[in-house]
Amino acid sequence: MTVAVDTTLSVRDLQVRFATPRGPLDAVRGVSFDLRPGEVLGLVGESGSGKSVTLRALLRLHRPPTQVSGEVRWNGQNLLALPEARLRDVRGGQIGMIFQEPMTALNPVLTVGEQIGENLREHARLTGRAARERAAELLELVGIPAPAARLRDYPHQFSGGMRQRAMIAIALASQPRVLLADEPTTALDVTIQDQILRLLLRLRDQMGMSLILVTHDLGVVAQTCDRVAVMYAGKLVETAPVLDLFRSPKHAYTLGLLRSLPEGGDRRVPLQPIPGAPPNLLALGDACPFVPRCTYATLKCQVGEPPLEEVAPGRFSACVHHAELPRPEVRA
Ligand SMILES: Nc1ncnc2c1ncn2[C@@H]1O[C@H](COP(=O)(O)OP(=O)(O)OP(=O)(O)O)[C@@H](O)[C@H]1O
């Protein structure tokens, strides 16, 4: 008998509240989206917008007193309500995660081979020689030369780019259906960044997994993603297929992000940030939180925070001026 597995990850009204000395801080304020099988979803936004906190919440990596609510539906269950023992099968198993700085995710006292082996044992029930062979295959798959020998090396014996690949190999050992990637290439130089992104896309094609890619870099989004979710002050303010977003953004914040892209998408030129600072999450008012920085803001924008609504087929925006925004002069 085959059991149908629903591999759409459905996030509904996700909220994350931190307890801080200055009071409760709502870092994620009602985020909802679906990640379809085989899809690459880019999660973009400035520093502090809530991208990493969102990603960690999907796998329930926050600990009390941090409060997480909403639903993360996966394979017929709500991950936010699952007993810890059952969640462990999902976390690092069906859903893998890779981080910006592999040294914080890798165990410094275990060899890379041992770390891949742990995942193979726990999630793929492979041990002994079969596990060693599979581990070498995984290192080869992520483009690490002389994989059998490198299994005996510790993380500090790898260069930055190779460490990133090793972390991906560990995450892939469980054959995840979904990979959550938090700025997986930010610390790397552009050539290695391109190689790793290409690798992730190849793995998506080969293994059919879907991917959430958190990034600051719209160049990376253009190169990699099928769909984009733009985050501002703990909310999604726009979601769209990638080309549509680049051609005709439907939120003034997205337009600002695109205008801050260097001419011709040259990533060696530093980005021009949007004037003004992101809002203080401890002191949000009732208006659209982008108002103080928005050149299109009118009185309408002061009347409550606009909800994310479908404004064209497949396009969602939380901007009351979505229909009046100009096209940015960027090449997608
Ligand atoms: N443990 C914590 N306690 C209190 N506040 C936190 C904690 N972790 C994150 N925050 C706050 O939550 C907000 C969202 O942070 P988050 O790391 O998700 O942003 P981000 O969009 O991923 O930014 P970056 O791109 O810089 O990683 C920020 O205001 C941050 O200061």
TrEMBL record:
As for membrane topology, the entry says: Peripheral membrane protein
Q: One of this protein's Pfam families, by short name? A: oligo_HPY
Provide the ABC transporter domain boundaries: 11-258
Q: Name one GO molecular function term.
A: ATP binding
Q: Which SUPFAM superfamilies match?
A: P-loop containing nucleoside triphosphate hydrolases
> What does the record list as coiled-coil region(s)?
none
Against InterPro entries, the record matches this protein to: AAA+_ATPase (IPR003593), ABC_Ni/Peptide_Import (IPR050388), ABC_transporter-like_ATP-bd (IPR003439), ABC_transporter-like_CS (IPR017871), Oligopep_ABC_C (IPR013563), P-loop_NTPase (IPR027417)
State where the protein is found.
Cell membrane
NCBIfam families for this protein? oligo_HPY
The record's PANTHER family line, in alphabetical order, gives:
DIPEPTIDE TRANSPORT ATP-BINDING PROTEIN DPPD (PTHR43297:SF2), OLIGOPEPTIDE TRANSPORT ATP-BINDING PROTEIN APPD (PTHR43297)
Instruction: Give the UniProt family note.
Output: Belongs to the ABC transporter superfamily.
Q: What is this protein identified as?
A: ABC transporter ATP-binding protein
Q: Which species does this protein come from? A: Deinococcus aetherius
